[in-house]
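Q: Convert this sequence to structure tokens.
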Amino acid sequence: MSARAPTRVQLSLGELARHGGLTGKHRDGWGVAFYDGPDALVVREPEPASDSTWMRFVREHPQRSSIVVAHIRLATRGDRALRNTQPFSRELGGRVHAFAHNGTLSGLEPDRPPAGWRFRPIGDTDSELAFCALLERMRDVWRSVEGATPELAERLAAVTDFARWLRARGPANFLYADGDTVFAHAHRRTQADGVIRPPGLHLLCRTCTMADDAPLAGLTLGDGTDGAAAQEVALVASVPLSDEAWQPLPEGEVLALREGRVVARVAG
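A:
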């Protein structure tokens, strides 16, 4: 999620559990990162969201944020363990960077990262090693500005180059946030019939009032304290989470989301 103004975002336990343990197969962990400026509160657990008291705590104590990255896991590589639970996070340029990936990649060996990499995996998944590969690309981008946020065009070019590299290794749907922008890459995913094909991600953009506490795609926005100011929200998910006009994203497209809007998109 990307929003124009920070808001309390309540993850619907029922909606997330439906995909993460009740009717869905993704029972191997869940996690969520709530951004607060350059930092983020990251809660992760290698258990089904449907059975989680931590998830209930998150729902009952919502955090105020304008960027949120959430993930539910179906383990294909690596044990069910905290070290393998997404979203993964690292510091770069004085900010927390978070990453969530869906898909199984080939040719990436977490126990043998290239020599000289600053960023190295903690766990055993191809997804975390892919995140480290992305941060290695982003390292020079952030180092070039010494404490400032690099230009969007420069960051987007690096993410797009990484997405192209990752697509050659398997399904490469991912979300990447740096505290300023959310980048989303849509590729292919295993559909309900078991076939791997597009779409890998869907997009929903909404405008509402900040005082509106009606559910939005499994999320509750607003706390009733911000008056009737306009709030803009952009949501990206693997599958539509509501009966609204979600847009399937073209294969290989990269989006940049900032302040609740799509501010840039690059075709695959």
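The longest strand covers residues 2-11.
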